[in-house]
Amino acid sequence: MTIHSVELVYKSLTSVAIPYMPEPETVQGKCSCCERPAEAFGSLGYRFMNSYKQPVMHCPQCQTFFVSAPDILGLETPKKISSQRFGMWPGVGALINIQECSSVLLAPPGVVNKLPPLFFEKVNVVTATAGQQSEYLFNADLRYPLIYIQDFGRKTYDLVRSLRVSHSSNAVYACCDTLTTRTNEAATIINLEQAKALHAQLKNLGKRETNTFIRTVEFLAHGRISPVDASATFKKNNMAHLVRMLPADPHQRLTLLRILKKVL
User: Residue 51's pLDDT is what?
Assistant: First the structure.
């Protein structure tokens, strides 16, 4: 039986919130978040009304994204009694090592400074801004299969339904709270080998040349210039070899460039 990705994230990371949750009750139907049938998680879950006064049901794995647990997650702000939450963590990412059932939380300083000592005893935390998160990906000894959460964001239902397992550095899913569908799935895939190789080349260019290359690729992907005009720009600036290092898919090109712009 295939294990849902939210279970893998739960086992490696979000289960730290379990001691701060009430006992689950017997439930039926499907989880409102991951959409698994109750039988898939032992028919034990949590029922309540959401902010729109609609009845919802969560499996224990999904509920860990919503629980407020200041003792383990730290207070959201000193003036509030609610804690930071996995389901409300924009700018925070994570790497889930599936084989070792371990994780690395990639969080900016503002988040890390709020975490209590207990969290660091349970989870490996790396202080990283958005740009530093990309640098960590380039330099880390990643073990596959893995789950890469680029941004927990604010829309937990969309994040959980978009979780994907990556099996190779040639196709790493950057999971976030933008719902992944068959239509946009290609845009979430990063070829880390291509990204690292292109990053090494662009570092040797001047800022003007780098900006020209990125702008021309983006304009071409968005249809703002013709392939003929783009080709002329690349030839004029001796960049044809860099174009061959890009993914063929225009959406993946844009995704790769967004990552590179954070580290260049």
Answer: 85
Predicted local confidence at residue 1, as pLDDT: 61
CB 30 within 8 A of CB 38: yes
Angle between helices 250-263 and 130-139 (to 10 degrees): 100
The count of other CB atoms within 10 Å of the CB of residue 48 is 11
The token pair at 210 is 């780098």
Region of 262 on the Ramachandran plot (φ > 0 left; ψ -120 to 50 alpha; else beta): alpha
Q: Which residues of the chain have pLDDT under 70?
A: 1
The pLDDT score that the predictor gives to residue 49 is 93
Give the model's pLDDT for residue 257.
Answer: 93
Please give the model's pTM, rounded to 2 decimal places: 0.92
Listed residue (8, 17, 184) closest to 94, CA to CA: 8
Question: Which residue spans within the chain are E strands per DSSP?
Answer: 25-26, 44-49, 55-58, 93-97, 102-107, 124-127, 146-149, 172-175, 189-190
Q: Is 45 strand, coil or helix?
A: strand
- The confidence score (pLDDT) of residue 231 equals 95
| C-alpha closest to that of 95 among 188, 200, 172 | 172
Q: Are 131 and 262 in contact (CB under 8 A)?
A: yes
